[in-house]
Each structure stands twice: as C-alpha cells, then as structure tokens.
Amino acid sequence: MSSAAAPVTSAPDIPRTTNAPAPAKAPPAAERVYAYVKQAVLERHYEGGMLLTEGELAEAVGVSRTPVREALLRLEVEGLLKLYPKKGAMVLPVSAQEIADVVETRLLVEEHAARKAVPAAAALITELEEQLAKMEELAASGDLAAVSVADRCFHAAIVRSAGNQILDRLYEQLRDRQLRMGVAVMHANPDRIAKNIAEHGEILQALRAGDAAAAVDAVHRHVSWVRNLAQGDAR
User: Fold this and answer.
1) Longest dimension (CA), the chain
2) 88-91 and 51-52 as β-strands: parallel, antiparallel, unpaired?
3) What is the mean predicted confidence (pLDDT) over 36-63?
4) Which of 46, 84, 88, 143 has its CA at 20 to 30 Å from residue 132's CA atom?
5) Does residue 161 contact residue 112 with C-beta atoms inside 8 Å?
6) Per-residue exposure over 202-226, b if at least 16 CB sit within 10 Å of its own CB, e if not
7) Distance between CA atoms of 188 and 206, rounded to whole angstroms?
8) What's the gap between Cα 172 and its chain centre?
9) What is the pTM of this model?
C-alpha cells in the first residue's frame, strides 16, 4: 500500500530588494535661494551696486518670497548684500579697504605657510601640480569663475600643509572674498591670467626645490599684485 504523497506547497512570496538609491531630497527653498544669489554675486553676474528685488529672485528660483527674505538676511550677515526694507537688497561693491585687509591677512598666513611647507611632502607637490594643470585647462576654456576657484585651491593646499587648524579656519573665512576679488581682477585684466599661472609655477618650483626663502618671496610678489590690480577695479 503506497502512502499518499505530501502536498506540495508553494514558496512564500519574498519581496525583492533593489540597490537603487533613494531619490535625492531637494534642499530647502531658502538654501536654494542663498546658493543661487551667492554664486551670482561671487561670479559677478550680480555686480556691486545692483539692486535685487524679492519678487525677481523668487521668480528666478521658483519659490515664494518668504525663503528669499531668509536667504537675503543670511547674505547680509556675510557682508555681500545690504537690505533696504520694501525696496530689496543691494549688492555691496568690493571696497579698497576690504581689498587691503584681505591681502594683508593673506600675506601673513600664506608666507608663514610657505615657509613651513619646506621640505614639501610629495603629496603636496602632486596636489599643486594638479591644481596648476586645472588652472591652465580652465583658462583655455575661458571659465574665469572656475579659474578663480582653482587658484584659491592652490593656495589653500599650501596653507593646509602647515598643519595649523586655527590658521586653516581663518584662511577659509577669506574664501568668498578671495573668489570675488579673483574674478574681478581677471575680468578687468584678462592678460593677467597667464601671469597668475606663471607665478603659481614659480611658487611650485621653489617648494619643489626646497627653497623656503624663494617660496616666501614668490608668494609675497604674487599676492601683493592682487591688491595693485583689484584696487584699480574697486568702486
């Protein structure tokens, strides 16, 4: 007598998992306005003295006026705008005093960092070579805002190599002003771009050669030129 076969049961449905990433969450409206306006000011799409209205910015970014006000207040604190109730916000021009202050601070920090960078680590030399090559490539494409970013990254790498976190944070606070001035200088003096790149090459060569005095001298000459050129462009 044969026994009855055991009933065949179907396997339970197991939900399949996928590795697809969750869709990125859009940043808050105020953050979008802040980033939009700040980039436009730093890249000089919004020039010093220009009046920006809440309505125009709200329409440009596709948000209501409330986040626009929040973003403008933040940019006023950072010294990029001046708010005028019921009128809008004026883009503050770069003043001669601001230029002088930034250059003085840069010289104090960057000369010290160049001196401490010798003997330069291989990783620093490689990073500087990469930034210099990027500057040359971006200059050829005519993207002055990107050239200014690569320019600052070159100097920031040297400052970082000093290993002083307080100086590093101080230097980081100059970032926006450096970028804005850098774009201003290059717009006003396009022939200066090639000279800038050549001077970065001189700084790199001095560090590569282990010559601290030459590195400090190259940094001093290069940064001091920013003051001379930018003051002619200041309003």
Assistant:
1) 109
2) antiparallel
3) 92
4) 46
5) no
6) bbbebbbeeebebbbbbbeebbebb
7) 29
8) 9
9) 0.75
